[in-house]
Prior knowledge:
Strand content: under 5%
Number of strands: 0
Structural class: mainly alpha
Largest sheet: none
Distance between the termini: 56 Å
Amino acid sequence: AYLEARKANARGAEALARFKTLAAPDNTEGRAALAAEPESDDPVDTVGAVLLAQLRASEHRRMGDTAATIAWLETALAATETLGWHLQRLIILDQLGPAQLRMRDSKAARATWDRYLAGAKSLGHRPMFANGHFRLGWHHITVMQWAKARAAFRKSIEFGDLQTDPAGISACWINIGHAWRNEGRPQEAIAPLRKGLEIAERIGHARWRWNALDNLRGVYHQLGQHEKALEIATTLLGEAETRNDPLELARNHASMAEAYFHLYRYADALRHREAEHAQYVRAGLKKASNSTLISVGSALSALRRFDEAIRVFQQAIEAAREMG
Length: 324
């Protein structure tokens, strides 16, 4: 059945192009025509049905409709079962699990990862097996099962390949460190975080480098080494300023403020809290900017500037009322 599906997919290239055209978001008539077409037992049509369902899932994902995304992915999944298209089934499961987590259905997501791992194992597909353990590790992090998360990420490293997927290995080490940190064992977090950081810097992976450094910053705070945390925060803020993204700047100003608070440098903390607030305002994020006002008020209180602090707290209360 699998070979038949592959042959059908090859013969259906023209049909797939037609599906993509008709399923385009701005092609209302085309999508209506597809919905009206009768079902067929032809493998070409079955393969097309799988891909069309995935396209529709992708469309709903872009619109933020997670429930519809899951429904279409499950439709695509059922069609792969009928067809015996095992590799595509794993690709769909890999999309389904994160969607289920977005719906906070951790039980369904765990079952999806178990199915994914079983399928990858039956195919003998090491990269997918490594990916499945990575996904399972992230699942355990979302439900705060730190030891299980570390075990899953180590399995992902075992089946992964540093040469072909260094970013994946870097992410695993960083997440292992993150799990140690969140379990309240910062000393154990340092070594895996540094391993992940070294790989990320070697391959120039900005996202994982930031993630590793930000986790190390938090670790140093947990260890009471606030000067080291400030050093990392200063580095990250300087890099963020070159990109001038308001959300990134807000996040890094918050890190600076946290470090200065720990060092009892309240005037510096206030300066960065005000900068954080300004960047959220710039980004148009009212909820985030309003919550930052509370931090500004706390900094003013620490400086014994109570009248100003009261005015800022009142401003935060009024803003919250306006937002309902």
